[in-house]
Amino acid sequence: MSSLTESKAWIVLKNHYHQIENISIRNAFKEDPNRHNKFSLQLNDILFDYSKNRITDETMPLLFELAKQVGLEAKIKSMFAGEIINTTEHRAVLHTALRNRSNRPIYVNGLDVMPDVNRVLAKMRVFCASVRSGEWKGYTGKAITDIVSIGIGGSGLGPRMVSTALAPYGSDSLKIHYVSNIDEADIMEKLKHLAPDRTLFIIASKTFTTQETMMNAFAAKNWLLESIKDPKAIARHFVAVSTNTESVAKFGIDTDNMFEFWDWVGGRYSLWSSVGLSIALKIGMDNFEELLSGAHEVDEHFRTTSFEKNIPVIMALLGVWYNNFFDCQSHAVLPYDESLRYFPDYLQQGDMESNGKSVDMQGQNVDYSTGPIIWGRAGTNGQHAFFQLIHQGTKLIPCDFMAAANSHYYLPEHHKVLISNFFAQPEALINGLTREEVKQQLTPGEQEDSVLVASKVFAGNRPSNTFLLKKLTPKILGSLLALYEHKIFVQGVIWNINSFDQMGVELGKVLAKTILSELESGEPIESHDCSTNALISSYKQMRDC
Ligand code: F6P
Question: pTM here?
Answer without folding.
Answer: 0.97
